[in-house]
Amino acid sequence: MSFSFVNHVALVTGGASGIGLATARAFAQAGASVAVADVNAQAARAVAAALVEAGHQAIGIGCDVADVDQVEAMVNETVATFGRLDAAFNNAGIQNLLAEVADATAEDYDRVMSVNLRGVWSCMKFELQHMRRQGSGAIVNCSSLGGLVGGAERANYHAAKHGVLGLTKSAALENAARNIRVNAVCPGLIWTPMADQMVAAGQGEALEGMTRAVPMGRHGKPEEIADAVLWLSSTCASYVTGQSISVDGGFVMR
Ligand code: NAI
User: Which of 9, 36, 176, 192 has an alpha carbon within 20 to 30 A of 200's alpha carbon?
Assistant: First the structure.
């Protein structure tokens, strides 16, 4: 599927790898000027440089979404560079350390929440301030299948991803009459460097088991999430707000 984002500006957090990288590329290929933001500033700049080399408009921004001041600066730099902000994909996220609730640490809870939940909140806060002034915009937040079901030893991650859906619905309500839409995507098992990290951490067998449990019998590709994000961000989804779309090969419908 292809959409036109010519004369549009898109911001993607966690844009240096995996799902964010595929989405930044998809926005650029659809004609958008793209701000690629990532805590790995060097990688974000390298992604942007490759996009520019390929004939697109892009900038790379170093931003830790857990730091509210850095998030404000990221949105300001995007708008200062390209003049507007039409689409934002709040995608940056991390895994929790596997542990039952009884054994998990408060430090890991705070670490995961600061990126996966407060990070989405602060990105929306500054994106929405600009979109309100602009009178238009579309935000897509990255939740997860973990935003819809529980997960043993993954409570911190699943709690944050459930929270993302609450933030999405509430911000959608607040902005529905302002020509600003807010939706979420819930990826299933998508093969990215995050999955590689899980294999490296000894969770390869668990991942294989999950893949076997996917009704489509395979893991997804980052580009399949990018397609959903672009659709939600496009005028083709002009009457869609406050929704979450599972892109998971049928995993959570069982
Ligand atoms: P990834 O690890 O390949 O990419 C994540 C990117 O986010 C990296 O470039 C990383 O540097 C960046 N990042 C991490 N912490 C950050 C921070 N504090 N500030 C800014 N950037 C930060 O991961 P992947 O798989 O592409 O995940 C992207 C999103 O999709 C995450 O929110 C994840 O929870 C979600 N997701 C992934 C699934 C999967 O199977 N891969 C399944 C469901 C959800």
Answer: 36
